[in-house]
Design goal:
The chain has 393 residues and is α+β, with helices and mostly antiparallel strands. 31% of the residues lie in helices and 27% in strands. The protein contains 13 helices and 18 strands. The strands form three sheets. Strands 1, 10, 11, 12, 13, 14, 15, 16, 17 and 18 form a ten-stranded antiparallel beta sheet that branches. The radius of gyration is 21 Å and the shape is globular. It starts with a strand and ends in a 6-residue tail after the last helix.
Length: 393
């Protein structure tokens, strides 16, 4: 746990009892509303999907994200507005900045919506990213691949998540197809040198308008098919690496004048170097472990930050493994929940289930997560294996 205070100057405080407007009605908005309602806040979400995860527990405006009239309705009813995803329509974002209170501002969105701008901002904070090149033609791509070597990763500059919008180039023969496929997205492309990492890590940091900054403990993340499967906390790395990772996250939060949360995804190399992979200016899947395992959850912390309340204590109370529940895991999880959990007793763990209220359990769709609280990480991992819920991972 690390924190920094750069200022204590008074700013507008959005007091409990106020209404928080949320652009987006998915699971992040849902968990934000659950945490914020405990502090006495009311929530209003704008989302095109009726009865979505957030809309089940908050008032909802059902409209598309680019609907300016709906956005004005949100602004009129909310005392402060936040978002649960980065790809907010630029015109709607600009209108809301002008007509309502959006403490996260538009600059952070503008930066993190575009991989090239994001990388330059990270470098400006004095933090390393993988060597990269802007790609505007197949010739550019071939030249950059020759410079970086194989494999390397071609990505769209905008859009893309959970492995979408990218291509790992493993041979020179793939270059024409890789370029043609991603160039069809009609956005800039960026090529990254492949970092041979030993672990993927992440840190969630929070910053308030008053300048208070705190970081949560480092998570060690394991992905399957480019989707987060496990977050293991504390990360199985040295204390020095943990301290460095938290310090990098705080440096980025301060340099970019973040308000709210910033998730910093990192690669750790064999020789102990840290490279930032991506940023997300919102609550993050790899921070879900905080809901039971920390004194303050990432969702409460985000509410505190955007409302300019003092930030909560981020201390880790217990080791934990967060495991994602995808569509194919829902039925076996529900069957497991209906029985006595002998494995939990045997391994002395406490699984805490969070389901998001999504109606259709599609394969690879994030439907929930389980925080497995434990005294020993190996016991939590053994419980996950023993249940057979995630046997196809």
């Amino acid at each position: 746990m690390m924190e920094s205070r750069v200022s204590t100057s008074p700013e507008t405080i959005i007091a409990p009892g106020s209404t928080i407007g949320v652009l987006g009605g998915g699971q992040l908005g849902r968990m934000m509303a659950l945490a914020g309602s405990n502090l006495g806040y009311r929530f209003l979400t704008l989302d095109p999907m009726p009865d979505g995860p957030c809309g089940q527990i908050a008032e909802q405006i059902i409209a598309n994200y680019d609907d300016k009239d709906a956005a004005r309705q949100l602004a009129a009813k909310a005392d402060v507005i936040t978002y649960e995803f980065e790809n907010v329509d630029a015109e709607v974002a600009a209108m809301l900045m002008a007509e309502s209170h959006v403490p996260q501002g538009s600059e952070l969105l503008y930066t993190t919506q575009h991989r090239l701008r994001e990388k330059r901002a990270i470098e400006a904070a004095g933090v390393r990213v993988a060597p990269y090149a802007e790609i505007t033609s197949e010739k550019d791509l071939r030249t950059a691949v020759e410079r970086f070597g194989l494999p390397c990763v071609l990505k769209t500059a905008t859009g893309g998540y959970d492995g979408k919008g990218q291509w790992v180039i493993r041979s020179m023969d793939e270059i024409p197809e890789a370029y043609a496929t991603l160039a069809a997205a009609k956005t800039e492309l960026v090529l990254e040198q492949f970092i041979r990492f030993t672990k993927e890590l992440s840190v969630i940091a929070a910053r308030s308008p008053r300048g208070e900054v705190k970081a949560f403990p480092v998570a060690e993340n394991i992905h399957v098919n480019n989707i987060l499967h496990l977050s293991i906390v504390p990360a199985r790395v040295s204390f020095d690496v943990q301290d460095q990772a938290e310090a990098l996250a705080i440096r980025i939060a301060e340099s970019m004048n973040v308000v709210g949360l910033i998730a910093v995804e990192l690669f750790l190399t064999e020789d102990g170097e840290l490279f930032v992979n991506e940023l997300a200016p919102r609550p993050h899947n790899s921070g879900h472990y905080t809901m039971e395992a920390c004194r303050t959850s990432q969702f409460e912390q985000h509410v505190r930050a955007i409302c300019n309340l003092p930030l909560g204590d981020t201390m880790l109370l217990t080791p934990v493994v967060m495991v994602n529940v995808l569509g194919e895991h829902v039925e076996p999880l529900l069957a497991h929940m209906a029985q006595e959990d002998e494995a939990a007793v045997a391994f002395n763990v406490a699984p805490k289930v969070h389901l998001y209220g999504k109606k259709e359990a599609k394969e690879k769709r994030k439907m929930g997560h389980v925080n497995v609280l434990t005294d020993h990480l190996d016991d939590a991992l053994a419980w996950i294996d023993k249940t057979q819920i995630w046997r196809n991972q």
